[in-house]
Amino acid sequence: MAVYTEIPFADAAALLERLNLGTLTDLRGIQGGIENTNYFVTSEKDGATHEHVLTVFERLGFDQLPYYLHLMKHLAGHGIPVPAPAADASGEVMHRLLGKPAAVVDKLRGHSELVPTVRHNEAVGAMLARLHLAGRDFAMSQPNLRGLAWWNDTVPVVMPHLEDSQRQLLQSELAHQNHIASTPAYAALPRGPVHADLFRDNVMFEDGTLTGFFDFYFAGNDTWLFDLAVCLNDWAVSHGDPAIDGEHQPELAQAMLTAYQRVRPLSAAERSLLPAMLRAAGLRFWLSRLWDWHLPRDAAMLQPHDPTHFERVLRARATEARNLAITLLEEPALAA
Ligand SMILES: Nc1ncnc2c1ncn2[C@@H]1O[C@H](COP(=O)(O)OP(=O)(O)O)[C@@H](O)[C@H]1O
Ligand SMILES: N[C@@H](CCOP(=O)(O)O)C(=O)O
After folding, report:
1. How far apart are alpha carbons 174 and 179 in whole angstroms?
2. Digit-coded pLDDT (tens) for 317-330
3. What does the record give as EC number (predicted)?
4. Ligand 2 atom showing the smallest separation from residue 197 Cα
């Protein structure tokens, strides 16, 4: 479940009224997600029915949210299918409900594809590249708050909860990522606003067609390659069966990479650092899952994901990443 804050009907109705979205007719808590309180809201305006998503932010504060909400607005304005946030009469897109920050965004059609095919991965790869290009003239900047600085702060916090082999993996990977971040090749990576959490459950499809990317609340300015690596580690690995969980799925990875590069070919620096970024993306989500698992801020408020899946992903990427990336990038279709 993901309704941490119960929103009274009257409060939601008053907010919709203020946003000129009509009269609230239905308010349904959404069972899904782990970070925020989400409701589907239905309203009537000028004889038509409208659907939106009302989010109350449980972790993020009033300082960080403008970046995410304005990025969504910017991308939607540039033709990327992203839920646009509703503004009040003064143009403000961040609102307040029960003392917490809140937003109302367009409801996307369709559902998530948890077992994607090559077609789904092609659609996501192409749209991700379009998103990166569309973000180039976004005026605001905010670091990826789950980036290297957070990894360095958080590794010592989770360390006491781990077994020796896990400690070793975490420490050596952090050292590797600190080294990579200091190299000229890393400095040469193109960057801009990135989603940074574009997992299968943050993309909608309807009848096989991509209808949108959502949940931008881990977005930030970072390398485009890191964003692509986050996607590859979720959309192109095995899930579920413990015997193969976390294994690379070459056909799915190839589909995403090829489609991405048709829109924006990777630079030489990006091609050389794909293995390192696949590891970085594995580390990022293993670490956040460990942190949620072992150090819940409030047990009643969090539904942590299983960290072991990303431990497997990281171990696999750390041992195979170089060969894997070389194979992927040597495909004739991708040769520069
Ligand atoms: N804009 C949207 N359009 C349609 N459904 C949405 C939208 N935003 C959220 N949802 C639904 O709410 C669920 C939880 O949202 P999510 O952003 O993943 O929550 P959290 O940030 O708490 O992890 C999603 O799985 C999806 O079903
Ligand atoms: N995608 C992350 C967790 C973030 O949760 P979300 O529901 O907001 O996408 C993970 O799988 O660890």
Report:
1. 9
2. 988 755 565 566 66
3. 2.7.1.39
4. 1
